[in-house]
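Why does residue order matter? Because the sequence determines the fold. Keep that principle in mind as you read this record.
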Amino acid sequence: MSEQVHIDGLQYINWTRERFEKTRDAGLHCVHVTITYWENFRELVANVEQWNRHFLQHGDLIMPVRTAADVLEAKRQNKLGILFGLQNCSPMEDDLGLVQVLHDLGVRIMQLSYNNQSLLATGCYEDNDPGITRFGKQAITEMNRVGMVIDMSHSAERSTLEAIELSQRPIAITHANPTFFHDALRNKSDTVLKALAESGGILGCSLYPFHLKDGGDCTLDAFCQMIAQTVELMSIDQVAIGSDLCEGWGYETLEWMRSGRWTFAADFGEGTADNKSWPKQPEWFEGAQHFNNLAQGLAAVGFDGSEVNKIMGGNWLQFFEQSFTPMQAAG
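Structure:
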């Protein structure tokens, strides 16, 4: 697919009509939205119900995306395409059959773990990483079959490498940066990124301050130079944007993201105990309205127009085309 599109590979927004309009008007054609972190299956269904109401109430602005063609249709209709993703495997509980059900509900991307050990894989904050579990191997096979992308953004190194090896289809790391740029627990080593590239996978580079060198003071030039170095390591066809943009939430939501229900104490993760607020975004990317700043920054560090278009959305579109169909129908 060669048509120019702008796609953000991960956002977590407290959506309102105003934010839908702002994101669409920024020139974005599709956003991978987080619909669960720690929720179980029934709680996920409630979130899908809320999204169905959004589609009814704001149908002039947004539409669901379940295929790559839907992204192009959203662009044609001047709407923002909404792609469902899960930042944890908790909604499938301990039931392999729910993978198909989740896909039927519109879920196209699922992380195998979110910072902690899950039933499927190890999160990046655990001290030890035994890799993909027996259940995880079955889940990977089933996700491959139905056309659900395996996302290892919050997973530990061995688990990520094993997921790449075990999956019959390319996986994604939707929102993270290389450790050569900033050595955060959530960022990925050269070993992981090379394996991801060799398998045909894709990396969405993150704008979340804890993933950036110098945090909220990171410059646009430094971020785009990082992308250039990552392209050299992987390829121009396998690097994209997954901003991890969070908007409209209070501190209690940040604590829910970090802590869920697995601890009675606040888990500060990449933050600090005296930081009771969201981290400050770089001034050149404070919201979706600044998405085009990335295109300008990429051009400034030497990418040509076709390369900018790939990073800004073309690579995601191609990946979606290859990933969302059931295995038996995949070309």
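The chain has one domain: 7-329.
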